[in-house]
């Protein structure tokens, strides 16, 4: 009998987790009853260092239904690492893994369709939202800008797909061979290859609890994705540098000519402008290069992506 595991990252989700787990159990039950294929299923919640009652709720829910299991991180390691931990654990026994956020903003009713696609031979099934009305104007447009920028830099990503997807065991295994500490999962998955397809759904607003991605974290996440998937920003600096040098040479020729032709000495505005613009460019360039050096440093350290403090429920 094949197994399907639903992996849920949860960080301070006490307000919503219980309802979400009940909903998912129902969906799994329907899947099992439909008997379209022969499999059993369970749910694995990864508590990403929550400071509220999330872990207690996971333990209670395990009592209520032993198909619900949990992993507790020793501290907050971030959404992406929680997903990696969950998938890594799940494929020890499961043939396929579905990842979904704890708030069920991504419609879990799309899961049966994902499973259909898996049974039909797909290794990766992307959940793609076909509406963004529930997002603010700002989130919609900033997301669009982000995808456009990455596409421009040559990074392939599935638009309007977040981390709601199904993956087969071999696809997860392939993903696990990507050893980056700061893995931007949705940017790496299209690189894996394997037969894949999309399943469309409507994204809903959060019914309880707050988004764990305030603006600051969202920008950090986007920047992380950009700089870990592309070295184009450093190339852009090189390009800017070359242009600046050419402009400098032109300015030199101009000033020499004006000196020899006896034209009046120009005021300080040109000086000020060039000092500030060049200074700014240099600082920005150093900052971007520093960012990449910082990345090299974190990778060199080879620290673990996460540390598990304890678990509840096993792989049954
Ligand atoms: N999450 C996590 N660790 C974090 C931040 C978020 O595991 O440090 C989880 C969170 O509990 C949720 C999912 O990641 O299950 C997505 O977060 P959220 O719904 O707050 O993001 P949004 O939908 O607003 O982008
Ligand atoms: Mg959400």
From TrEMBL:
<feature type="domain" description="Glycosyltransferase 2-like">
    <location>
        <begin position="5"/>
        <end position="175"/>
    </location>
</feature>
<keyword id="KW-0812">Transmembrane</keyword>
<keyword id="KW-0472">Membrane</keyword>
<keyword id="KW-0328">Glycosyltransferase</keyword>
<feature type="transmembrane region" description="Helical">
    <location>
        <begin position="269"/>
        <end position="293"/>
    </location>
</feature>
<protein>
    <submittedName>
        <fullName>Ribonuclease III</fullName>
    </submittedName>
</protein>
<dbReference type="InterPro" id="IPR050256">
    <property type="entry name" value="Glycosyltransferase_2"/>
</dbReference>
<feature type="transmembrane region" description="Helical">
    <location>
        <begin position="236"/>
        <end position="257"/>
    </location>
</feature>
<dbReference type="GO" id="GO:0005886">
    <property type="term" value="C:plasma membrane"/>
</dbReference>
<dbReference type="GO" id="GO:0016757">
    <property type="term" value="F:glycosyltransferase activity"/>
</dbReference>
<dbReference type="InterPro" id="IPR001173">
    <property type="entry name" value="Glyco_trans_2-like"/>
</dbReference>
<keyword id="KW-1133">Transmembrane helix</keyword>
<dbReference type="InterPro" id="IPR029044">
    <property type="entry name" value="Nucleotide-diphossugar_trans"/>
</dbReference>
<keyword id="KW-0808">Transferase</keyword>
<dbReference type="Pfam" id="PF00535">
    <property type="entry name" value="Glycos_transf_2"/>
</dbReference>
């Amino acid at each position: 009998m094949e197994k399907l595991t639903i992996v849920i990252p949860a960080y301070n989700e006490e307000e919503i987790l219980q309802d979400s787990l009940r909903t998912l159990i129902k969906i799994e039950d329907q899947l099992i009853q439909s008997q379209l294929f022969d499999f059993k299923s369970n749910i694995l919640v990864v508590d990403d260092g929550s400071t509220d009652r999330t872990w207690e709720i996971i333990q209670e829910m395990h009592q209520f239904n032993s198909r619900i299991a949990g992993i507790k991180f020793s501290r907050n390691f971030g959404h992406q690492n929680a997903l990696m931990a969950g998938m890594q654990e799940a494929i020890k026994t499961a043939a396929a893994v579905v990842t979904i956020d704890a708030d069920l903003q991504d419609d879990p009713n799309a899961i049966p369709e994902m499973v259909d696609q898996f049974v039909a031979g797909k290794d990766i099934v992307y959940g793609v939202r076909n509406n963004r009305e529930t997002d603010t104007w700002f989130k919609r447009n900033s997301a669009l800008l982000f995808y456009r920028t990455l596409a421009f830099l040559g990074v392939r990503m599935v638009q309007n797909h977040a981390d709601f997807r199904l993956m087969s065991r071999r696809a997860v295994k392939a993903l696990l061979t990507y050893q980056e500490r700061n893995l931007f999962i949705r940017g790496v998955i299209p690189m894996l290859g394997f037969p894949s397809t999309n399943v469309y759904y409507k994204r809903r607003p959060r019914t309880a609890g707050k988004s764990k991605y305030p603006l600051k974290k969202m920008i950090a996440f986007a920047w992380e994705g950009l700089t870990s998937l592309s070295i184009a920003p450093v190339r852009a600096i090189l390009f800017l540098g070359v242009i600046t040098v050419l402009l400098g040479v032109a300015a030199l020729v101009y000033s020499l000519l004006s000196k020899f032709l006896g034209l009046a000495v120009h005021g300080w505005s040109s000086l000020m402008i060039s000092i500030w613009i060049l200074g700014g460019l240099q600082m920005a360039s150093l900052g971007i290069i520093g960012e990449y050096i910082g990345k090299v440093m974190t990778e060199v350290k080879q620290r673990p992506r996460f540390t598990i403090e304890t678990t509840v429920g096993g792989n049954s």
